[in-house]
Known about the structure:
Helices cover about 30% and strands about 30% of the residues. By secondary structure, it is of the alpha/beta class. This is Formyltetrahydrofolate deformylase. Pathway: Purine metabolism; IMP biosynthesis via de novo pathway; formate from 10-formyl-5,6,7,8-tetrahydrofolate: step 1/1.
Amino acid sequence: MPHYVLTLSCPDRPGIVSAVSGRLLRHGGNILESQQYNDLATDRFFMRTVFAADALLPELQASIGELAHDFAMDWSLRDRAQPRRVMLLASRFDHCLADILYRWRIGELPMQITAVVSNHPRDTYRHLAFDGIDFHHLPVDRGRKAEQEAALWSLIEGTQTELVVLARYMQVLSDALAARLAGRCINIHHSFLPGFKGARPYHQAHARGVKLIGATAHFVTADLDEGPIIEQDTQRVGHHDTPEDMIRIGRDIERRVLAQALRYWLDDRILLNGHRTVVFAV
Ligand SMILES: Nc1nc2c(c(=O)[nH]1)N[C@@H](CN(C=O)c1ccc(C(=O)N[C@@H](CCC(=O)O)C(=O)O)cc1)CN2
């Protein structure tokens, strides 16, 4: 029996859970897992429900669409058996790319990788196995960023990519491209945001003399390192740690934070709540 995941958000009011569960029951739905949250500050309701049903997706979508209209819902319904289509972007540092490829290879990240894209040549990753995944070298030559982004966008569209992961991709996306990728582009920033935005956060952290460093996975917006935060983690450092030590310690934090954020996205556990997120963790 297919398993479906329904995510929704709408203005809060009594009876949302009852209406949704009743509608699913009407189609023989058996709820397997359900989480909800009411943001009292915005009076907005968020819900994620996993259910089993013999009914076909189009029938369910039509029925839930009616309900969604009545409750002014933003919603999505997906067959959990359908793997998501994800594109991986990286620059010189490949530790996050290598980690995601390994987790995907062993089945921890159930997704279809549509391509690996870099502004550096294939040889940069000569020790990484791409297992038949297409690699695209899209260099950013001075004054030709628009052309590079046009090629990148055509690849994203041409491969029907649902999510773009910036796995230490060190080029700032233009406002236009960030807008096109709103809610479907996740970046790993190598600091505990909002501290130390920009390209060299570990050197900034060392100069400030912090005792904790971290990493942040967030949705990409036009405003650099300002997007809705999905996942964060930290680790202690000391006066003896050099910027190089922090870069080494930070690699592990970046890997686990990005992998967790990607697992949440693949399992429809992230809902946007304005410039914040609701994350229905396991
Ligand atoms: N529109 C956005 N684009 C990107 C974001 C984002 O939040 N919004 N995050 C970055 C990743 N990043 C930090 O996490 C980051 C990347 C690059 C830079 C930067 O200053 N890059 C320089 C070039 C550096 C180089 O070539 O090595 C630049 O683009 O001029 C800062 C932060 C990914 N894109």
